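[Meeting: bench + compute handoff]

Bench side (C.D.) handed over the final construct sequence. Compute side (W.E.) agreed to return the predicted structure before the next meeting so the bench team could plan truncations. Sequence as handed over:
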Amino acid sequence: MGKLIVGKPLSRLPAILAGYVGPQTKVMVVADSAIANRHGRSLVTGLRNAGFDAALTVVPAGERSKTLAQADRLYRELARRRFERQSILIALGGGVVGDLTGFVAATFLRGIKLVQVPTTLLAQVDAAIGGKTGVDIPEGKNLVGAFYHPLFVWIDPLLLKTLPLRHWKNGLAEVIKYGVIRDAGLFERLECRIDHLVKGYSTEWAPIIARCAQIKAEVVKQDPFETTGRRAILNFGHSIGHAIEAAAGYRDYLHGEAIAVGMVVAGRLSENMTGFKSSDRSRLDSLLRRAGLPLEARRPISRRRIFEFLARDKKTQDGAVKFVLLRKLGKAVSGQQVDKQSLVDALAVSDL
């Protein structure tokens, strides 16, 4: 797994990167339009000053850029610029840019060097860590992808100062997830401070981001290619969440918003199936609500469509989706098979 570099300013990246590769190495920074203007151009300038042959390419913002068509555009640009296996792609942005750029790095020339520089809360605590890359197709989210670990993941919390509030809350869903599945103390800290934390970046966030990144790295190291089942706990709330995103055409929900609804459903399943206390399930729902996240569908989604996308979920085995459920706060269990009626009852709680 790539090295985590947490807390160093982005301006230090070119000098650190120079220690990994030779002079005049080709580098392409991939960013969406907002990040390109805010951080991308200055990063390219810094890379050039450090001796790199650096360029910037911009992709449209949003989940709908995570496509094979966008990947093809990047492939062709890399080919035109004569990138080699020792060349470097830098993903500068949120989860969409990280997933897309990582997938291109994994597959161009069967693998070129990659650096992840996450610029959203969700990407810093989750999406940029662990080596999962991929694109969406109409049949489902992340169905095409590869495991591909970067040289390093550069996490600079100061990049979050200008993050819009909706995207801040989007990342909070994954932060809450880590408390729920692995660290009850973190969950309690979030409960105590959520009214302040939900407002955006402050210095109080730095250790929280570092703790979430640490949890993700620890779990990934136990199961780097998702073959033993130990990594599956990271998917709490994600089976339903991904189905919601896909059924809504990747328009109505940010990733964390859909995952929040998925966690509500998974919490109810846990209460009914794995002994999760009703009081703790209520605490989870309350924390999500206080974080400004949805607990139910914003508008009707066909249950048939939800089941259709669940059937295509990556975690499906022998036609059955294996859910991650909770035994208690801080303790998740994976591989739980849920009968259809129990799932229908739990979906009804979130108007699905």
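W.E. noted at the follow-up: The two ends are 37 Å apart (CA to CA). C.D. will use this when planning the next construct.
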